[in-house]
Amino acid sequence: MLLKNKFMKTIHLYIFGIGNVGSTLVDQVLTANAFFKEKHQLDLRIVGLSNSKAVLLNAKGVQTNWKTDFINLGIPRQADSFYNFALLHNEVRIAVDATASKELSTFYPELAQHGFHLVTANKIANTLSQKFYDELRNELRMNSLSFEYETNVGAGLPIVATVRDLANSDDRITTINGVFSGSLGYIFNRFSKESTPISTIIIDALKNGYTEPDPREDLYGNDVARKLLVLARETGLKLDFEDITIENLVSPALQQVDLQTFLNEVKQLDKPFNDLKQSLAPDEVLRHLGKLNVATKQLSVSLQKVKKDSPAGQLTGSDGFFEIYSSSYKTHPLVIKGAGAGREVTARGLLSDIIKVANRVDSTVYR
Q1: Which end of the chain, C or N, has fewer beta carbons within 10 A?
Q2: Cα 335 from Cα 343, distance rounded (Å)
Q3: How many CA atoms lie within 13 Å of 301's alpha carbon, on the beta-carbon side?
């Protein structure tokens, strides 16, 4: 039994998106609630849940039956639903974005104006124009608010924090290379080893929560490009998305159709990818790579043939792989490798960022 602790901080979580990642995050918070109280003196309460149509609000925090409550007690979503509710409850508030929504990303400055700390798995806000990027950070700074986004790159792997720490300590980064997408890692790791058509693997990846809701966002190379841009900006580079060279893996006929049509017609990709596979040497596999050269400000995303015994070639499952070269890591790079996609690791990464913010914030400023 937990004793009441006068130092216990109550944290109100407002979660946007209750799909694969969002629903997993809700369950992780509820499961570990007692742990957070004992270990961190944090009372994490999910007081707001939202999808594109409805919101569920509960000042005491949602419970394990939250899915049923969302259906039965949810109300139509309004633009100011969370804002109005937060005004009635003077607690530390953290907005958590578990969506892939560009529209929601554009409201981050407004969330900051309403006193919300931000935690996001959504890469879009960090890869909009450099002007928006700078203005968002200025808004957060003026309101003494935190913004954490470790899951923007590598799901739960500590890539962003590592690059940020190196840059902040003047350990000048020269290049970052690797398999940035656990989604495409999963797809091409399987494709290189199995006789399964790539269309089947893409559908499997979608069902297992490895890809974005629209798998083309991964196959276009845009997702990896955004990750590259996130890291490039962490090194101090002033670049925009249009500065990245991106190889699109989706045939033109499938690029403009709606999502359901794409999923119905994805078999059109089988022949060209099988032809590419047949062109591989016996010691080669396909890997989707991202490359950042800080000195030349060049960022590129492409599908490459690599040797099976190379670091990228030895990857399995949805593992991501990152090589960071810097002043201190000139000849032997700093290497980070591990699960780079999946709802469990992404949700856990969000939860880790929530704890960082909650531990950092002074709850007395809300009193």
Answers
A1: N
A2: 23
A3: 24
pTM attached to this predicted model: 0.89
Let me know: does 321 contact 211? Beta carbons within 8 Å: no
Could you state, in order of their start, the residue ranges of all structural domains in the chain? 9-154+345-366, 159-341
Please say whether the beta carbons of 181 and 322 come within 8 A: no
- CB atoms < 10 A from the CB of 129, how many? 11
Q: 138 vs 134, 145, 148, 165, 195, CA distance in Å?
A: 6, 10, 15, 20, 51
Question: What is the enclosing helix (H) or strand (E) of 36?
Answer: helix 33-40
Query: Who's near 316: CB < 8 A, 6+ residues apart?
Result: 189
The DSSP secondary-structure symbol of 335 reads: E
Q: Which of 9, 37, 123, 227 is catalytic?
A: 227
Question: If you classify domain 159-341 with CATH, what class do you get?
Answer: alpha beta
Whether CATH 3.40.50.720 fits 9-154+345-366: yes
pLDDT tens across 265-314, in order? 999 999 999 999 999 999 999 999 999 999 999 999 999 999 999 989 99
